[in-house]
Design goal:
The structure holds two protein chains of two kinds. Chain A is an all-alpha fold. Chain A has 20 helices and no strands. The longest helix of chain A is centred in the middle third of the chain and has 49 residues. Chain B is mainly alpha-helical. Classes of the chains: A mainly alpha, B mainly alpha.
Chain lengths: 491, 45
């Protein structure tokens, strides 16, 4: 147990708890403050919470592990995220100001279909809830590496802190504490990146990578010489195309980002999150790529017992000054927590507002709504701690594939619904159901080896749902004026 | 070898700033979104 690592981790967790409780008690007065931060986040908090949605255990562990394994070709993914965000921006300028409490609410407001809203909410829950399992795992491992205690202890401590935060303040607490998490992560990466730059010569690193052919992990196949410094590497063009479609649409329509668009206090603030956020993300992603390439040159094969996903944390804790390593672990914890608490809050808000409340048929006072939102958030957060401690194989499978189903359900109704006035309920329902089912079928086919490994299964499902939307929409009458008026006002 | 790295670096700098560039254009030209957005009670366009 390294006292410095433990101290930095404990200080971070206490600050997280303090800010979350403060925001929840001071800023949450209505149920909408809880579910969507009252549509009133200012620029600093919105940029902080936006950055935190991009910082995840996956970006620090999975993303850097990909560059370690594949070389510079592993850096295509952040570029897909950026292209996806251009779709986000065009969704934002149409959806901001419509006061959507949850992303699935759009489906009922635009298409007049409660069924579609419920399908969208179920897709959101399936697509994101079990996806948090990998973040719990990252949190547990970061905790273990930093403190020497068991990963289960990290999951329980982090899980209880998150349950406290989201129960007290919902999105308001998540957003305010995200400013801390974003700051910790940004400082950790920039610090680590600067240390890498000042310690290693990039030209020598590239020279070494160009001839390196050892496997990235013990037992993995050898790396083809030269692939680590190739733009395409071992990926192949088809895989890149399918991955691009998968991620550009997947993030482009992801409810987490739609929620952030709505939470800003006005359109200018909403646009500022992209204007300020992406230059910062640009620096972060480039530094992560370079640090991961250096890690591969310094440690050509990970030691026995470590997967390549842990290359950068292992490299920094072994070679960098202790404070850099300590900040990096706090950064991993911050990134994992920022993803989990944000998604749990989104899921809780959606389960209550999009499924339980409409189906109950009861008209609740705002005080009752706030109480039930909190109860839903607490139950989900506590259940997820238990699930994360003992994840079943089925849930791990859903975690891997649920995200693609979510993208296939949302893409067509959201994009066409905002930009094509003629788009109707029938088209949206057909596209959502077709997209969701096809994504599941394609994913099962790939799992059993019936689809080639380069084909990201959600990509053809998304394309099919876009086509189905157009065809079915044209087979049925245009939607009534009262449904489209809000989204396509007379100029 | 170094060429591919430099291409990836250049692509990263350009593409990773596209969202910011798009947002900057929209902020400079509010007519592109303000005319299509309807004022809703309690919210701003």
């Amino acid at each position: 147990m390294n006292p410095l690592y433990v101290s930095v981790m404990v200080v971070f967790l206490l600050l997280y708890l303090g800010i979350g409780i403060w925001a929840g008690r001071r800023k949450v007065e209505t149920s909408k403050d809880f579910t969507i931060a009252g549509f009133k986040l200012g620029p600093v908090v919105l940029v902080g919470t936006y950055l935190a949605t991009f910082y995840s255990g996956a970006s620090l562990i999975g993303g850097t592990g990909m560059v370690y394994r594949l070389g510079i070709a592993g850096n295509w993914w952040p570029l897909f995220y950026a292209l996806a965000t251009v779709i986000n921006v065009f969704i934002a300028i149409r959806i901001r100001g419509k006061l959507l409490e949850t992303p699935p609410e759009f489906m009922e407001r635009r298409y007049g279909s409660r069924l579609l809203r419920i399908i969208a909410s179920i897709g959101l829950v399936v697509g994101t809830l079990f996806g948090t399992l990998v973040q719990y795992k990252a949190m547990g491992i970061a905790w273990t590496l930093a403190t020497g205690l068991s990963p289960e202890m990290g999951v329980i401590i982090g899980g209880i802190l998150m349950a406290t935060i989201i129960t007290i303040g919902g999105l308001m607490s998540v957003a305010y504490s995200d400013v801390l998490k974003a700051a910790v992560f940004t400082i950790a990466i920039i610090w680590a990146g600067l240390w890498c730059f000042t310690t290693y010569d990039i030209s020598s690193v590239l020279d070494k990578l160009s001839t390196l052919s050892t496997p990235p992990e013990v037992g993995a196949p050898p790396t083809p010489a030269g692939s680590l410094v190739s733009l395409i590497g071992t990926l192949g063009v088809y895989m890149l195309i399918f991955q691009a479609i998968n991620w550009i649409f997947g993030i482009g329509i992801h409810p987490q980002y739609v929620q952030r668009m709505s939470a800003g206090k006005d359109m200018k603030t909403t646009l500022l999150q992209y204007l300020v956020g992406w230059p910062i993300l640009c620096v972060i992603y480039i530094l992560l790529m370079i640090a991961s390439l250096i890690a591969r040159a310094v440690i050509p094969t990970m030691p026995e017992g470590y997967t390549s996903d842990w290359a950068l944390p292992y490299f920094l804790t072994t070679y960098a000054p202790p404070l850099v390593g300590a900040m990096f672990f706090a950064g991993i914890a911050a990134a994992a927590i920022s993803t989990v608490d944000s998604q749990l809050e989104l899921i809780a808000a959606s389960i209550f507002s999009d499924i339980v409340e409409p189906l109950s048929g009861k008209k609740l006072t705002d005080e009752e709504r706030l109480k039930w939102c909190r109860v839903t958030a607490l139950v989900i957060a506590l259940v997820m701690i238990l699930v994360a401690l003992r994840p079943s194989p089925l849930l791990l499978l859903i975690q891997t594939y649920g995200w693609g189903i979510l993208a296939a359900i949302y893409a067509a109704p959201l994009i066409f619904g905002l930009y094509w006035k003629r788009g109707n309920r029938e088209g949206a329902l057909a596209a959502s159901i077709t997209g969701g089912l096809l994504a599941a079928v394609f994913q099962a086919m790939q799992f059993t080896g019936l689809l080639p490994p380069y084909m990201a299964p959600a990509a053809p499902a998304i394309l099919a749902s876009l086509i189905v939307y157009v065809i079915v929409t044209l087979m049925f009458p245009a939607p009534p004026e009262e449904l489209t008026r809000d989204f396509f006002p007379e100029k | 070898m170094e060429g591919d790295f430099l291409i990836m670096l250049a692509l990263s700098i350009i593409i990773l700033n596209l969202p910011a560039i798009t947002a900057a254009i929209l902020l400079k030209m509010p007519q592109l979104w303000a005319s299509g957005a309807k004022k809703v009670e309690g919210g701003e366009t």
